[in-house]
Amino acid sequence: MLSRVLAVLQLVVFLVLSCASYGEPGGTFTVAGTTLLFRNETLRLTIGQQEVIVPNPPGSIVEGSVPIPSLASSGVRVAVELVVTDRHPRVECKSLSVACPGQDEEEVKSVVGVYSLHTKSWKVFGDFCPDYVNSVALSPDGTKVAFTSKLKSGSQHCFDNPTVLQILDIATGGFTAVPYQAELLMSDSPLGWSPDGRYLVGQLGSMETSTQQVVLIEIASGIGKVIARGTAPSWSPNGNWIAYIAGGAGGQKCMLIRPDGTDVRMVHTLARDSGDYSILYRCAVWSPDSGKLLFNEMKADEPSVRVTMLTLATGRVITKSRDGLIVFGWGWEYNHR
Is residue 328 a part of any domain in this protein? Predict the structure, then answer.
């Protein structure tokens, strides 16, 4: 009997130590503020110590390399590309002004979906080529959304239509085109806003080229300026730094750079071919106070995700979760009740 009790105690101690050392299993975790997690078409928010599942949107969140949900730094809104299906009477029925039961046409399109924690509801905006709304990014105050899309115009094949960089004003529902050659931007890389809302940071390049660059784009003029070679840039909420991922012989590294292209420094690295987590997935996620970074780390041979957190002041890295959801945003805590 005593041996059984000792065995149970040893197991409990082992499990406690494992969770403390390797993070919370299942993919959810808590930090000060609000975090946005996503996988398997499910959006989740952790607000303080509480977990909130975002209600199903009025459309599908397409799983894959393109959809990248975004959380406003204010923690009040979530935005993502949605694919929706509209049904309407066939053209011949419209022209004859008669009903055609069971003969409705289906039209598939992409829209920008915005969820408000304040109203606990979704709104959709736009009418774009399906699966061609990319790089959705909420402004820090949650009032605007930057994204790229292909408009339903010109060629009947969406692939041939030009890519446009646009800004959505959520209050009015209006769209403003940024005069920048959006075809140069990576479609599956996120955009990031400067805190003052005047600039965007993005990634130049394509799947066919090995050269990837970090570019700043002035929204008003559309003028772009390359500041580094790397991928997946993200702007710190205080505006002082841009984090991005750089490769090299030693493996992937998270770098910091000033918006003017100076003061480059490495803050985190993953050894290549270590047999463990060796890939930095997507961009680093900044804490609202710009003092910490969250990383999605993946294994090369399996889709396992480990979320780690770096404290910039000390250089300390701890594991927050393992084998679970991908973190896409970290904002201030919002009172959602």
Answer: yes
Do 151 and 235 fall within a single domain?
no
Q: What is the pTM of this model?
A: 0.82
pLDDT at 22: 38
The residue whose two tokens read 């509209």 is 86
Answer yes or no: do 64 and 151 share one domain. Answer: yes
The token pair that represents 254 in the structure block: 């998270």
How is residue 54 annotated by DSSP? P
Whether residues 177 and 120 share a domain: the answer is yes
Contact 288, 331 (CB under 8 A): yes
pLDDT per position as a tens digit, 278-313: 678 778 999 999 999 999 888 766 667 889 999 999
In a domain, 36, yes or no: no
* Token representation of residue 50: 């509480």
Number of domains comprising the chain: 2
CA distance 46 to 34: 5
As a whole number of angstroms, the distance between CA 18 and CA 286 comes to 26
